[in-house]
Amino acid sequence: MLGKIEHLGIAVKDLDKANETYTKLLGRKPYKQEEVASEHVMTSFFMSGENKIELLAATHEDSAISKYIAKRGEGIHHVAFAVENIYEELERLKKEGFTILNAEPKKGADNKLIAFVHPKDSNGVLVELCQEITE
Length: 135
What we know:
The chain is α/β, with parallel strands linked by helices. It has helices at 15-26, 64-72, 86-95; strands at residues 8-12, 32-36, 41-48, 51-58, 78-82, 106-108, 112-117, 126-132. The protein has a single domain, classed as 2,3-Dihydroxybiphenyl 1,2-Dioxygenase, domain 1 (Roll), CATH 3.10.180. 23% of the residues lie in helices and 35% in strands. The mean pLDDT is 88. It holds the Pfam family Glyoxalase_4. It comes from Nonlabens tegetincola.
């Protein structure tokens, strides 16, 4: 399973489809779905370790999320997740149907092995997997 992340908000067009995608990606279902009527959004929350991801979908065409998606499209640049075993996690994600951008993990910054999941499979968000190099 994916590990610790910072709290991130991700704009999505279709919350149901996004929930399916993130359920597969994270290996768990959202723990809460809530409408924020004053902001014209429906939210869905996922936990990853002690951190959370908030998916936001517009409930009205004049909402801030609707305008954001119209201007920039879905998502943010990327989300980095800590993993204990990058090779096992890449295999799990491949089995779930995600496209992996790296044939093999590579050395990244801060003494990490890294690999990426293509943003087309996760609502426009580039996902980075990071494993601490201990050898």
